[in-house]
Hints:
The structure is a single chain. The chain is an alpha/beta fold. It has a single domain, classed as D-Maltodextrin-Binding Protein, domain 2, CATH 3.40.190. The protein contains twelve helices and ten strands. It has helices spanning about 1-20, 40-55, 75-80, 115-120, 125-135, 175-185, 195-200, 210-215, 245-250, 250-285, 295-305, 305-330; strands at about 25-30, 60-65, 85-90, 140-155, 170, 185-190, 205-210, 225-230, 235-240, 290-295.
Amino acid sequence: MMKSVVSTAMAVALSLAMAAPAAAERSLRLSLQVATNHPVGENIVFFADRLKEISGGEMSVELFDSAQLYKGSEIPQAVSSGAIDMGLVLIDEFAGTIPAVGLFSVAFMFPDYDVLARAAGPESEVRQSIDQMILETGARVVWWQDYGPVQLLSKGEPVIAPADMKDKKVRVLGKPSGDFIEAVGGVPVKIGGSEQFMAYQRGTVDIGMTGTTAIKSRKLHEVMDNVTITNHAQTEFLIVMNEAVWQDMSDQEKAWMTEAAREAEMKMREETKATNLAAQEYLASETDMKVVTLSDEQIDAWRQASAPAIDAYIESAGDAGRELVDSVKKLY
Length: 332
C-alpha cells in the first residue's frame, strides 16, 4: 500500500514538472541608471523581451532600473569585477581610464548624423577599436545605444556665441566635453545625468549640457529657460557585460545574445533621429522653453573656437586617439 502511494506521488510530481514551463537556464542581472520608460530603458526592455523570445525562455534578464544598484559612473567597475553581469553606461565613463574612448564627445567631431552612424556602426573600424579597448578592462560591449546630439541649456538669456560661455560653470559628461568647455572659456563641472534637474534648479552650474530627448524625459524645461541647438557632440550609451560571464556561455547562448542585441541596436539607431527632432518640436510648442537654432555662420564660430578640444583629445589619447580621428575624417 505504501509503495503504491509513493509511486503515485512520484508520478504526479513528474507530470506536474513536465507540464510546468521550464525555468530560464541562465538569468542575467542588468543595472541601468534610467527608468524603463526612458528611451534608453525602453530599448533595454526590448532587448530583454527579444532574448527571452529568441531563446525560448532559456535566457532571461532581470532589470534593476533607476540606479537601484549602481550609478552610471559605477557601472564599469561593477561589471568588470563581476559584481553585476551587465550594465548600462555612458561611453564617456570609460574615458577617464581610456582617453581614446571619449571620441564621440569631442566637440564637432561629427559634421552630420550620417557620419556618426557610419563611425558607430558594428562593422566600423572606429567602433571595433573602441570595443577592444573596453574589452581589456574585463567588460565586453554587447551593443551600442545611439541617443542623439548634445545641446546647451541656460537660464535667462540663451547661449548664442562662444563668448557667452566665458567664466560660466557648465555641466559636462566627462573629459572630452570638459575640454570643449575649457576651449570656449567656461568652467567644466561633471554632473551625472540623473542629477541634472537638481543641479539646474539649485544653480550648481550656470549652463547645462545634455541630449535633446533628455530635456523632455527629465523635464529639464521646468528648471531651464533656453536650449541652444549646437549638436556639438553625440551621446552614445553602451551595454557592457562581464567578460567571464560571456565566456561561460555556450555558443548557442552567445548567438541568442548577439541576435537580440543587434536588433535592439538597429531599432534605436533607426528611431533616434526622428525621436530627437520630435523632442525638439515638443519643447518649442508644448513648453515655455525657448529653442534657439543657430545659423551656419554661428555654428562655424563655435567650431573654430572649440578646435583646441580636438588637439586636447589627441594629446590625451595618444596614437590611439589620433588614429581614431583620422578614421572618422575618412568618413566625411
